[in-house]
Specification:
Elements: E1 11-16, E2 22-27, E3 36-42, E4 45-57, E5 66-72, H1 93-106, E6 116-126, H2 134-146, E7 157-164, E8 167-170, H3 174-177, E9 182-188, E10 193-203, H4 205-232, H5 249-267, H6 274-289, H7 294-323, E11 338-342, E12 350-356, E13 359-368, E14 374-377, E15 382-385, E16 387-392, H8 409-423, E17 433-442, H9 447-462, E18 471-479, E19 484-488, H10 492-497, E20 500-506, E21 511-518, H11 525-549, E22 563-570, H12 574-578, H13 583-592, E23 595-601, E24 604-611, H14 614-627, E25 636-645, E26 648-654, E27 657-662, E28 683-692, E29 695-699, H15 740-748
Parallel strand pairs: 5-6, 16-17, 27-29
Antiparallel strand pairs: 1-2, 2-3, 3-4, 4-6, 7-8, 7-9, 9-10, 10-21, 11-12, 12-13, 13-17, 14-15, 18-19, 18-20, 20-21, 22-24, 23-24, 25-26, 25-28, 26-27, 28-29
Helix pairs in contact: 1-2, 1-8, 2-4, 5-6, 5-7, 8-9, 13-14
Length: 749
């Protein structure tokens, strides 16, 4: 006899959110062969996070080979994937963005000398529509690491915060997010913040910091729950031992002694050209390598290069901390030179070339109808975007030659940040679907912020009435724990060798988006506040340069840009406009040369007509009005005489809709023969004066001047219902009248 296997007893911890909801952390029941596995549940939403790390380092690797994947199963929300292939295939943009959020908060917390292939997979197994899954992803990933033996300077957590009607909510529902004027994902440890990303509706720096502080309090609770769970899981401590790097401290000191002063001097030259600056640093390195023997080069050459990189790191940082002098000669608050050009090429509906130092974005705007909207179909989101932005980073922008293999995760992330920075500044009343594409032509830091600036200028060039123009800046940080310097408008090298990349976008009125990544253990609120205030000054400077070049939105759309007409029709006419098999709407498009789309919104039909030909637009609008014609009493119509009778004429006031113009309503004088006034085909102006059982009564005379001295005929007195009328005294009652037969008999006699 086979004995039924007993289900394992899971280990659980609970986290209570401020609104009373509970997050449950569970391990020991699912995916037990992973190094760490945890099921995180809140309401009907559940995420499974697993982590596996190779016990051995990958040969030749000197970085942390971490892979983070986020997967949303369609079954989690009871849906089947759309399209021909019914399998979850390549990750959607949303999945990539969530994975990036988790990756960015975890990566700095692994030991620098840990080089084992490590894979984190977070899978959405259940989704109830009320709990945002991405707000739990960072917590799930960190918990999986916390209960494993993988070395990790955590735990950490991520929470989503939103401000709705002045109240800051932790881990809001999707419905609450739709109403929020602040929406941010915050990652941090119990001691500090390590990652921030979000969008806002022109909020102040103080309001943003308040939301971050609220998030940090929730993070502390979630970190405590992870520690409590890990303490109950066998094997979570101690962490595994490893030895992934072999160092030669004698060589390290030799490299530093021989090269530091020279590297420090190069860092202080203030060379704005990054290629020239890199060449100067290489000269120092190569001069040292030339002092090594062939045997030393063979055995320790790569190690010497690594140590020299550390020397560059220290020299650049110390030059800033000691003298406030940056690699390109700027002060810590100085912005690189900016030049702007719009209407660069004739083809796009709007375009701009924005250059800041050695970073350049060529950005275009294309206007379309709802047919051009970006369709979203995922396990947790179904809908469309009428404003979206794509960011491209070709290799030539950095002077490299490498294969083009599709869009990278970085490109998706940078594009998403720029999109969030701009989208709230485009009013819904604009109506168009707007696609923005940023092609980075040169790159030396802050290319996503150049995209924001170029995107604003391209929208203005296209004639789109944005609420306010938006600028963006990337802030950096250099700190040795005792001193720190916040850098405005960072270079690529300052991003690489620095401790922070803090991107902030906004208008003159406030912040619209932000993204912050920390490469050290965390960031104090003091430094964050200084960075935000310094960013505010930098944003204002950049915005001023933008408005010097383009002071106002283009007055009109460009001639080749499509014009958009939006019509609202009753729901019951939608089928009539479309026609059987789309025959009517296709015919209209062929006749007018316009694109026509229909969507049902709130029991109404919303029609979009777009095209470049004004005559075609007007004709399409006229045709649709004819199809959807509903006569209104009191309205005046220019109709066509369709038939003439002795008592009046029939007038068509809309396609297939006729009314009677009675002889008494033709003129103020008597008309005996309507044919003396009208013939079939005549166009006449009439007013709809009434409707009786579906029959329309028209009048022409009420639109004509009343003749002088004309006396209105007194209206007939209302005699009331027949049964209430008084009987004439001299009229015999029916029962007193002789019968018809009696009368006949009398006449016959």
């Amino acid at each position: 006899m086979f004995e039924m296997m007993k289900a394992p007893t899971p280990i659980r911890e609970e986290i209570r959110l401020p609104d009373g909801r509970t997050i449950t952390l569970e391990t020991g029941r699912m995916a037990r062969q992973a190094d760490g596995s945890v099921l995180v549940t809140c309401g009907g939403t559940a995420l499974l996070a697993t982590v596996v790390s190779d016990p051995n380092a990958r040969p030749g690797v000197d970085f942390m080979p971490l892979t983070v994947e986020y997967k949303e199963k369609f079954a989690s929300s009871g849906r089947v994937p759309g399209g021909f292939l019914k399998r979850e295939m390549r990750p959607a943009d949303r999945e990539i963005l969530v994975a990036r959020l988790v990756d960015r908060v975890l990566r700095p917390l692994f030991p620098e000398d840990y080089h084992s292939e490590t894979q984190l997979i977070i899978t959405l197994l259940s989704y109830d529509g009320n709990v945002a899954a991405d707000s739990l992803a960072g917590l799930a990933a960190s918990t999986a690491l916390a209960i494993s033996d993988i070395p990790f300077k955590g735990p950490i957590s991520e929470v989503c915060v939103a401000r709705v009607n002045g109240e800051i909510i932790v881990n809001p529902s999707p419905a609450q997010l739709a109403q929020a004027d602040i929406e941010m994902m915050i990652g941090g440890s119990a001691d500090s913040i390590v990652m921030v990303e979000g969008e806002m509706s022109e909020v102040s720096e103080a309001e943003m910091l308040e939301a971050i502080a609220t998030a940090h309090e929730a993070i502390k609770l979630q970190v405590a729950a992870q520690l409590a769970l890990a303490a109950r899981v066998p094997g979570s401590s101690p962490k595994r031992t490893y030895s992934h790097e072999t160092h030669d401290e004698v060589l390290r000191e030799r490299v530093k002694k021989a090269t530091y002063d020279q590297a420090y001097a190069v860092a202080g030259l203030g060379l704005a050209d990054k290629h020239l600056r890199s060449a100067k640093f290489r000269e120092v390195r190569d001069a040292f390598l030339a002092t090594l023997t062939e045997e030393e080069l063979a055995t320790s050459g790569e190690l010497a290069k690594k140590y020299y990189h550390d020397v560059e790191y220290d020299a650049m940082r110390n030059q800033i901390l000691d003298n406030g002098r940056r690699l390109d000669g700027r002060s810590t608050t100085e912005i690189r030179p900016i030049w702007v050009e719009t209407d660069v090429l004739p083809g796009p509906h709007g375009c701009a070339l924005f250059t800041r130092g050695e970073t350049q974005s060529f950005t275009t705007v294309t206007l379309g109808s709802s047919l051009d909207a970006n369709r979203i179909d995922s396990a947790t989101q179904v809908g469309e975007e009428k404003f979206y932005l794509h960011y491209n980073f070709p290799p030539f922008s950095t002077g490299e030659a490498r294969p083009l293999r599709g869009v990278s995760r970085r490109e998706i992330g940078h594009g998403n940040l720029a999109q969030r920075a701009l989208k709230r500044m485009v009013p819904e009343s604009v109506g168009y679907t707007i696609r923005i594409v940023s092609d980075i032509l040169e790159s030396n830091g802050s290319s996503s912020m150049a995209t924001v600036c170029a995107g604003t200028l391209a929208l203005m060039d296209a004639g789109i009435e944005i609420t306010r123009p938006v600028s963006g800046i990337a802030m950096g940080l250099i700190t040795d724990k005792n001193r720190f310097a916040v850098l405005s408008d960072i270079l690529g090298d300052e991003d690489h060798l620095g401790d922070m990349d803090f991107k902030v976008t906004g208008t003159a009125n406030g912040i619209t988006a932000c993204q912050m990544d920390i490469k050290i253990g965390g960031l104090t609120f003091e430094i964050m506040e200084k960075a935000l205030m310094q960013a505010k000054e930098g944003r204002a400077h950049i915005l001023g340069k933008m408005l010097e070049a383009v002071p106002a939105v283009r007055a009109e759309l460009k001639p080749h840009a499509p014009k958009l007409i939006i019509m609202e029709i009753p729901k019951n006419f939608i089928g009539g406009v479309i026609g059987p098999g789309g025959k009517i709407i296709q015919g209209l498009q062929a006749e007018t040369g316009c694109h026509i789309s229909i969507n049902e919104v709130d029991d109404k039909g919303i029609i979009e007509i777009s095209g470049t030909n004004p005559e075609g637009l007007a004709l399409a609008q006229q045709r649709i009005r004819e199809i959807c014609f509903v006569p209104e009493v009191g309205a005046t119509y220019n109709g066509t005489v369709k038939g003439i009778q002795t008592f009046g004429v029939f007038v068509e006031i809309g396609r297939g809709t006729e009314g009677l113009l009675h002889v008494s309503e033709m003129e103020w004088s008597r008309v005996d023969d309507p044919s003396t006034l009208f013939k079939e085909g005549d166009r006449i102006e009439v007013k709809l004066i009434g409707e009786d059982k579906g029959k329309l009564r028209l009048s022409r005379k009420v639109l004509l001047p009343k003749p002088e001295g004309y006396v209105e005929r007194a209206p007939r007195e209302d005699r009331g219902p027949r049964e209430d009328r008084p009987r004439r005294d001299d009229r015999p009652r029916r029962d007193d009248r002789p019968s018809r037969n009696e009368n006949n008999n009398t006449s016959e006699s």
